[in-house]
Amino acid sequence: MEIKGNAAAGNATATSNADNAKKNFGPLIVDAVIPTAGYYLLKHEGMSTVSALAWSSVVPAARTIWGLIKERQLNGLAALMLVVNVVGLALTFLTGDPRLMLAKDSAVSSTVGIGILVSVALGRPMMTAGLKPWLVKADSAKSEAWDRLSAESTAFRRIESRFSLIWGTALLGECVVRVVGAYTLPVDTMVWLGGVFTGGAILIAMVIGSVVAVNPMEKLIAAETAEAAPETTFTPATV
User: Fold this and answer.
1) What are phi and psi of 45, to 5 degrees?
2) What is the pLDDT of residues 8-49, one digit of tens each?
3) Which of 104, 109, 115, 227 is 20 to 30 Å from the Cα of 181, by its Cα?
4) In the predicted model, what is the mean pLDDT of the chain?
5) Distance in angstroms (rounded) separating the CA atoms of residues 174 and 176
6) Radius of gyration (Cα) for the chain, nearest Å?
């Protein structure tokens, strides 16, 4: 029975991992890989740079619209991406400037980055919404420890804000680099390099955030959880 239980648990974990991978990497493939491949394919077929950029942006825009319809609620980030794509397409066709089409993608990262930094200034760090579940891992004792530390520990709140500050700064930096690249590098180069900039910004934020925020917070939560745990007293058996 135990072997069957372990096998079932293993299958459930594998299924969960597959679902998570699909959820995490599916949008990345649709929003980055397909448009990039589509651009080079359309250019190879003789389409102009502006037209190739425009048509390669249709798939991400369609995915965003489908997501809004499927969820039946307005997601702020999804709506922002849709507006940026539509406005970028319109301006590109009006001006005939393919570099504007490349630079438009920085509007999403800059808006999110500014939003994160503003949330830090207001004392409500935006990245906490994803950081807390990652650290407490559905453990009620750790969740309670987080709540206590967040309410009572200035050091903990400072580190919590630092994590969001790192992500906001990284996204704003990616925005600046992308805009500079869009207007200084060849268009064909920026089509693929833009995704590298985004991936690099995310990787940098993850590495720095882990060192200066995640690891210290894990230690504080573990110490707080251990301190709050009831002590177990050993009573010797009587003969």
Assistant:
1) -80, 5
2) 444 544 444 444 444 444 444 445 556 666 666 766 667 666
3) 115
4) 75
5) 6
6) 23
Token pair of 78 as six digits: 């999804």
State the residue for tokens 């650290």. Answer: 135
177 CB-near residues (< 8 Å, 6+ apart): 197
Residue range 79-95: mean pLDDT, rounded: 67
Task: Give pLDDT, residue 187.
Answer: 86
Per residue, the 3-state secondary structure of 130-154, as one string, reads HHHHHHHCCCHHHHHHHHHHHHHCH
> Can you tell me the distance from the alpha carbon of 83 to that of 89, in angstroms, rounded to the nearest whole number?
10
Is the full-model pTM beyond 0.85?
no
pLDDT band at 126 (very low <50, low <70, confident <90, very high): confident
